[in-house]
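Internal ticket - ligand job 249, 16G:
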Amino acid sequence: MNAVDFLQPEGWLGKTGGPRYVQLRRRLELGIETGVLPHNSSLPPEREIAEITCLSRVTVRKAIQELVREGLIEQRQGSGSFIRKPMARMEQSLSHLTSFTEDMGRRGLDTTSRWLERGVFLPTRDEVAALSLREGDQVARICRIREAGGRPMALERAALPLDILPNPLEVTTSLYLVLERLGHRPTSAIQKISAKNLESREADLLGVAEGSAILSIERTSFLKSGRVAELTRSLYRGDAYDFVAELRL
Ligand code: 16G
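stdout (structure tokens):
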């Protein structure tokens, strides 16, 4: 089946199926999933989709924008919209205490950060408890979108005692590299993983649709002395990660 036949509105566009842009977005997602709209091919122009489906161009644009946010479609200046190759899932071992930069480097991917917060703050009650802070202590906090190969992979919020990370602005790429330089790299950690559906603000930041499945991970890491070095809460894209644990008798 070609794209024009596939987008004919009979059979999938109706009054009861929710907002029209959502119905179109779902139809396009199905086309991408089933290969009717193949990877690396161009999407028919907005005007043509509007004609085939009898939808307004505003509605078509809204559906396409959502697919761009989800990372399924890429808009190239001057040459239109293209179906992106899907992101390969990454397997992440749960038995080694590695950093995001190291994990991605091993896969040959460069990492970048989009900073949301980085500085010294008054701690929240959770941070005081998790980091065993004393009254009046402040906390170093770094919060960022972690990207690999140019794609957002995780939203990460880390909090550390100030004597472990006195100057959070020093962290420009890898937190663990800075901690290593300071002689404070954690040597063990406990991780709690749970499933969540993304709220709209976080979904926007990660470039996925609201309500998408996400892995919520809380890592508490320790120095050799047993002292807590870091409390990091991360949201990892559920469509990109498999966490793998090795079990032995
Ligand atoms: C990982 C860790 C996070 C740590 C970060 C350091 C998980 C779930 N989280 O993302 O706790 O702070 O690596 O990475 O693995 P960096 O050294 O590249 O900044």
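Auto-summary: Strands lie at 73-76, 80-83, 90-93, 111-121, 139-148, 151-161, 188-197, 213-222, 228-237, 241-244. The chain has two domains: 3-83, 90-244.
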